[in-house]
Amino acid sequence: MIDQIETAELHGQPVLKLQTPDGAVALISLFGAQVLSWTPAGGEERLYLSPQAIFDGSTPIRGGTPVCFPQFAGEGPLPKHGFARNRAWRVVSSRAGKDYAVATLRLEDDAATRALWPHAFAAEMSVSIGGDRLDMELAVENTGDTAFSFTAALHTYLKVREVESLRIEGLRGLEYRDSADGDTFKKETGVGVMIDDEVDRIYHGAPQTILVREDHRALGIHNENFPDVVVWNPWEHKCAQLADMPADGFRRMLCVEAAAVKTPIELAPGADWWGRQTLVAM
Known about the structure:
Helix content: under 10%
Distance between the termini: 27 Å
Strand order of the largest sheet: 6-7-8-9-21-18-17-12-15
CATH class: Mainly Beta
Oligomer: single chain
Low-confidence stretches: none
Number of strands: 21
Mean pLDDT: 97
Structural class: mainly beta
Strand content: over 45%
């Protein structure tokens, strides 16, 4: 019998390893509650983790699925993507069955977070694997006595064989904000979005399911309660400026992120919210 949930280390940092009897495996960093690796049963690695990622317990890790909270990118006064991705989370529950393994990690406000963002909150990241699917759910509760608002994303780095050979299906007709072109608003006209240059787009009112199709495989991406989808690839010039990415790393990755950006989430005291992204390997 395999130990389906165990604590391990990756580059000297603590991780939680989930595995199922059918062969699905995921690694979750306790730093940032970040899924770093996911291999579906009988398949191959589907998340990109930069071989030059920094594992020092304070620098955000390049790859996997960073949790952006309580701010996406530079959409406010906080450090880029907020503080959740470079904070230590604690494991609060885990369980496994014959065809699944799931763990939940929790982050609560403290003096350091309140110095940046003066609100009482509790955030939980739940990760479940089994068969050909990975489920990631971010839940946020307002534990204080005043309302607050936030933006958030699950900043998922997909591992691809060749970024120029794939296409993203399901975005046609959507309005998007093109951050690579001065934050101009455009409408997606292509049946499939191709990547042949820098792409940094926030699609609004996205459908629940989109598909990333490669030559001999595909990945279904199902988002719940996240109204936006971010598509990002830094391409050659910007990738070369990233110290924690190899020069050709942009060819092996594509970020497709479940996000709530255009309309911030408003939470009254005692209220909660959740958003989920599910990846299905095909």
